[in-house]
Specification:
By secondary structure, the chain is an all-alpha fold. It has one domain. Helix content is 84%, strand content 0%. The longest helix is centred in the middle third of the chain and has 39 residues, at 118-156.
Length: 233
């Protein structure tokens, strides 16, 4: 168990990097004022790179959340199980959306757009618009899943001390952050998005990094971990 927890801790530390990249890379996107500009995103390394970073990030994050669930299980099996279930749903939803963006929208439709005639361009653009509307709805759903997973993990670590208490606070701070992102993305209210945009690049990477340190330090040796588990039972 110790070696597996160490693996999940490393995954959590790597998500600190991928989380920051997910925030940073869009800053290098070109200006997109026309349909052709958007169609050419399929050859933009910053844009395509972000899609692949997002794809890899989800697997790393799920491993990290599994490691956290194992530790939370010692105190609250219900919160650990429910929290990881919400994160699984988040991960599946985002993987589905990102995969469609990579392979259908960019690798197929946008790739074909520059060489297509006007009639075909109209069809391709309709396909892209439809998928983007579908992704917009899915993104709302994954935000809800992420909010619930964050809330349950925050409650599950609340009774901890030291680094675990800090992890709990950071998880719980992720709840209003997710609410602000949701409000900004799906209403006409602007100020929550401004707050989220300022907090996200600091809070989320730091939270993931400290999560990795907590998992690493809390796993202990196999003997120590089993003793902790037996005591909690």
């Amino acid at each position: 168990m110790n070696s597996f927890l160490r693996l999940t801790a490393v995954c959590a530390l790597l998500t600190a990097v991928t989380t920051f990249l997910l925030w940073l890379l869009p800053r290098y996107y070109p200006e997109m004022s026309t349909e052709m500009d958007r169609a050419m995103l399929h050859v933009n390394l910053w844009y395509i790179g972000r899609q692949w970073v997002s794809f890899i990030h989800i697997f790393l994050a799920l491993m990290a959340y599994l490691g956290a669930a194992i530790l939370i299980w010692q105190r609250s099996r219900g919160l650990a199980l429910a929290g990881f279930m919400w994160f699984l749903l988040w991960g599946f939803t985002e993987l589905l959306g990102v995969s469609v963006l990579i392979f259908a929208v960019n690798n197929t439709w946008r790739r074909a757009y520059p060489q297509a005639d006007e009639e075909m361009r109209t069809t391709l653009q309709q396909n892209i618009d439809l998928v983007m509307q579908w992704w917009d709805a899915l993104f709302f759903l994954l935000l809800v899943f992420f909010l619930l997973g964050t809330l349950f993990y925050g409650l599950g670590t609340w009774r901890g001390k030291g680094l675990e208490k800090m992890i709990s606070i950071l998880f719980l701070l992720g709840v209003p952050l997710t609410v602000f992102i949701t409000i900004s993305g799906y209403t006409q209210v602007v100020w929550p998005g401004m707050i989220a945009g300022a907090i996200y690049p600091v809070l989320q990477p730091v939270s993931r990094g400290l999560l990795g340190l907590w998992i690493w330090s809390s796993g202990g040796s196999d003997k120590e971990f089993n003793q902790k588990k037996a005591f909690s039972e």
